[in-house]
């Protein structure tokens, strides 16, 4: 590789002595990340001082093409003298199992879950302190658009996070400010081949449709669109951090277990699946609209539920904070929400609970 061929990456979460494992699919982004880490670790004066390894997951989705990807990664790691962790994931079987369990996963979801489950295993077993994935600025822009189209809240718009803290380690994305075009130019300069996934051009997948059809049209309105969307993700991530700090402070004062009983105190069910959370209406009324929404959604999350925008609005309506002709804002009113979540209003409180 020519000495002048370099790519910048985020080193801020990498420390000397760390055991770093790079997820390598064989595609341009992950190959470039592995080469970049290897070169940086081998530089005498500025060596990262890390233990470097790689991991490849064969999803067994593309027959011989998947096996050829694996062989390519094996040969690359041998040439660089980098230890490689291999994992075979049977995605078709996983999809069939999730469908039978009533929680069906798409191909993309199943493949992603399989990858991150194995990453977690590597971290938990002590083989690595951090797993590095090669998500780029282009990936970030595509993800923000996907989230927008699905009606995501602010936390969804934060899209791909540069760091994910897990119980036994971290997932790092050091290329998140690097463009895919820069990566391919780097590899061409280095005369380093990579593998092309044939499914990347299949526009039946939402991400590919966004990448090949929607984003090129939107760039006609803003040539710097990808950076603009990445900036939006960063702003959303910072906003969420600020909100979570505030919610962590307020929720213990606002959320009450169970429901009140005569003579004082509260009744809290010990029956599995019968947990409930209540919020005093006067305390909700004292909050600004943005905080009210977040408190309601946080209350539902504590019960293991996720509220949609419409469901949150209906809860605000039953409390009398939003007009909604379909919702009765009075004592005794009740709402049936998704996945068995229920809400009822007493003279003083809104209660959320599950009804199986």
Shape by Cα distribution: elongated
Name of the CATH class of the largest domain = Alpha Beta
Question: How many structural domains are formed by the residues?
Answer: 2
Percent of residues in β-strands: 15-25%
Main sheet attributes: strand count, strand direction, barrel closure: 6 strands, mixed
The string of secondary-structure elements, in order, is EHEHEHHEHHEEHHHEEEEHHHEEE
So, the CATH homologous superfamily of the largest domain? HUPs
Give the overall pLDDT as a whole number.
92
Q: Helix count, per DSSP? A: 12
Structural description of this entry:
- The protein has 356 residues and is an alpha/beta fold.
- It folds into two domains: 19-239, HUPs (Rossmann fold, 3-Layer(aba) Sandwich), CATH 3.40.50.620; 258-354, Uridine Diphospho-n-acetylenolpyruvylglucosamine Reductase, domain 3 (2-Layer Sandwich), CATH 3.30.465.
- The chain is built from twelve helices and 13 strands.
- It has helices at residues 28-42, 64-80, 91-100, 107-124, 137-149, 154-157, 180-189, 206-218, 225-254, 281-285, 289-302, 309-318; strands spanning 19-23, 51-58, 84-88, 130-132, 163-166, 169-172, 255-257, 259-260, 266-267, 276-280, 334-336, 341-345, 349-354.
- The strands form three sheets. The protein has a six-stranded mixed beta sheet with strand order 3-2-1-4-6-5, sandwiched between helices. It has a five-stranded antiparallel beta sheet with strand order 7-10-13-12-11.
- Strand 5 and strand 6 (169-172) form a beta hairpin.
- Helix 3 (91-100) packs across helix 4, helix 9 (225-254) crosses helix 11 (289-302) and helix 11 crosses helix 12.
- The longest helix is centred in the C-terminal third of the chain and has 30 residues, at 225-254.
- It is elongated.
- The termini are far apart.
- The relative contact order is 0.10.
- The model has no long low-confidence stretch (mean pLDDT 92).
């Amino acid at each position: 590789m020519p000495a002048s061929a370099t790519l910048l990456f985020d080193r801020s979460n990498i420390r000397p002595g760390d055991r770093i494992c790079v997820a390598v699919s064989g595609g341009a982004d992950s190959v470039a990340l592995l080469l970049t880490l290897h070169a940086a670790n081998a530089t005498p004066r500025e060596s990262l001082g890390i233990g470097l390894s790689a991991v490849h997951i064969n999803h067994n989705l593309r027959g011989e093409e998947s096996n050829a990807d694996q062989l390519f990664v094996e040969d690359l790691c041998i040439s660089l003298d980098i230890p490689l962790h291999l994992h075979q994931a049977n995605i078709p079987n996983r999809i069939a199992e999730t469908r039978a369990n009533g929680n069906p996963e798409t191909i993309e979801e199943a493949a992603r879950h399989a990858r991150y489950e194995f990453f977690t295993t590597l971290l938990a077993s002590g083989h690595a302190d951090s797993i590095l994935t090669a998500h780029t600025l282009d990936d970030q822009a595509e993800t923000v658009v996907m989230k927008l189209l699905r009606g995501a809240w602010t936390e969804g718009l934060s899209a791909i996070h540069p760091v994910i803290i897990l119980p036994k380690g971290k997932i790092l994305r050091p290329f998140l400010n690097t463009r895919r075009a820069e990566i391919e130019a780097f590899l061409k300069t280095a005369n380093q081949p990579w593998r092309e996934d044939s499914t990347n051009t299949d526009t039946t997948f939402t991400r590919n449709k966004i990448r090949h059809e929607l984003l090129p049209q939107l760039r006609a309105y803003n040539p710097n669109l990808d950076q603009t969307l990445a900036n939006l993700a960063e702003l959303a991530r910072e906003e969420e951090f600020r909100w979570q700090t505030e919610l962590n402070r307020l929720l213990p004062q606002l959320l009450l277990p169970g429901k009140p009983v005569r003579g004082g105190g509260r009744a809290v069910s010990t029956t599995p699946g019968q947990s409930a959370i209540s919020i005093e209406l006067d305390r909700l009324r004292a909050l600004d609209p943005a905080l009210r929404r977040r408190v309601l959604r946080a209350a539902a999350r504590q019960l293991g539920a996720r509220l949609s925008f419409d469901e949150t609005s209906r809860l605000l309506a039953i409390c009398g904070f939003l007009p909604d002709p379909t919702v009765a804002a009075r004592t005794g009113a009740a709402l049936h929400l998704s996945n068995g979540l229920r809400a009822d209003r007493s003279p003083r409180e809104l209660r959320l609970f599950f009804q199986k």
